[in-house]
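Pasting two entries for a bug report.
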Amino acid sequence: KAAYAAILEAVNKNKPIWLVYQLTNKSRREIYFGATSQEFRDRLIEHASGSTKTIKHWQFTGTNKDLIEAKVLLSGLIQEKASKLAHIFEKIMRMKLKGTDWKVHQTGGI
């Protein structure tokens, strides 16, 4: 109920609704978590353009493009909750992958 009330409050105040997502680069063995109020497709286009410093080296297009999996983890969130959850997912994944050659990138955050 509390989450639903927060969403209704955000909508009533014309605040954007946020989502949390995960990008997994299987070619480079790297993971990135993010939060956005944009359409997910538009955010992916921004990432592909190199606008995100931490994953600017990822190849989203071209002949040597990386194998990147993108998925929405949660949606319908207010900004503060989305940012906190992205960082929590990041920490959990770091603990899960400790001792492996996988890298979890630091989310810029809000």
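Entry 2 (this is the one that rendered wrong in the viewer):
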Amino acid sequence: AANYRRAGASYLILVDILEARAHLAGYQEAIPGAAIKVVRLHATPATIAARITRREMSQDSHDWHQGRAVELATLFARERPEDILIDTDGKSPAAIAAEILSQTGWHTTEG
């Protein structure tokens, strides 16, 4: 974390699957003093299935990812690990990124 701060970074975006808020402790230990915001990207089951079908070439991989998506959707509905929830259905990556910046307030801060 100190290396990023010395380089002038104001924000870090870490991509991970956070199954429960308790798992934030490891990030907080690794980046002392960080104000961590958990942003969860949400899509309907139909959208997730279509994305997996486009992305995964082998049937085994497709089936595993499809099963994991259902498992995670159930887990996230129960645990609610996010601070911010972004619906991604029908949105471009650029629109999703803009919404993340807007919801987190990062676009209004110099850095």
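Dev reply: Rendering is fixed now. As a check, the viewer should reflect this: The chain has a mean pLDDT of 89.
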